[in-house]
Amino acid sequence: MGEIKKAEFVKSSAKHIDCPKDDRPEYAFIGRSNVGKSSLINMLTQRNKLAKISSKPGKTQLINHFIIDDYWFLVDLPGYGWAKVSKKEKAKWKVMIDDYLLRRKQLVNIFVLIDSRHEAQQIDIDFMMSLGMNEVPFAIVFTKIDKLGTTMLQKNMSAYRRELKKYWDELPPIFEVSNTKQIGGPEIIDYIHQINQSLKQ
Ligand SMILES: Nc1nc2c(ncn2[C@@H]2O[C@H](COP(=O)(O)OP(=O)(O)OP(=O)(O)O)[C@@H](O)[C@H]2O)c(=O)[nH]1
Ligand SMILES: [Mg+2]
Predict the structure, then answer these.
(1) What secondary structure, in 3-state letters, does the chain show?
(2) Which of 37, 114, 117, 120 suits a disulfide with 29, CB 3.0-4.6 Å?
(3) What is the pTM of this model?
């Protein structure tokens, strides 16, 4: 099963043009504030202080690059949909994220993180629709599955799939993780390794 041997922080960038000048394959994590993006990076790399996490939303404010096994990048992004920042600040972040998502050529796949406890939220659907329209490949990761019992989790997952099928005939790959209980990481790493292999051919 997939594992990561080496992970190092490279840099934080405020704009996509400041990101590392490098054409290695890159994978970014995005989703609403507090969904567990930075925690997922720490789980995947098995380093609990690599990406900064907080119980308060809005912790990650820049585009953070981590180089993995000297070959590919993991990218931690700020979250969207956090109510407690000014409109101006929100607009600034949106420009930063959209520019990065649409212009970063080496960006191979985006993981859209969704809190498994909640019903489908319009902001997430809209975000995935815009990725679809811009032909940016993505997968979905349901987070915090430790907070739900098996029955509730299955119920929420089926409801979410039903909702997505209103918009898409074919669903993207879907992963389920718990960062606190360390569940679901190897599947995501395997998926990334497979894409990296296919890019080499
Ligand atoms: N129970 C549980 N808590 C989690 C899990 N993943 C993250 N958390 C908690 O959720 C909070 C937010 O985690 P972060 O990883 O900082 O979230 P983020 O999406 O990076 O947030 P921003 O950077 O603010 O956008 C922290 O208190 C984490 O400990 C999980 O799988 N299970
Ligand atoms: Mg974060």
Answers:
(1) CCCCCCEEEEEEECCHHHCCCCCCCEEEEEEECCCCHHHHHHHHHCCCCCCCCCCCCCCCCCEEEEEECCCEEEEECCCECCCCCCHHHHHHHHHHHHHHHHHCCCEEEEEEEEECCCCCCHHHHHHHHHHHHCCCCEEEEEECHHHCCHHHHHHHHHHHHHHHHCCCCCCCCEEECECCCCECHHHHHHHHHHHHHHHHC
(2) 37
(3) 0.95
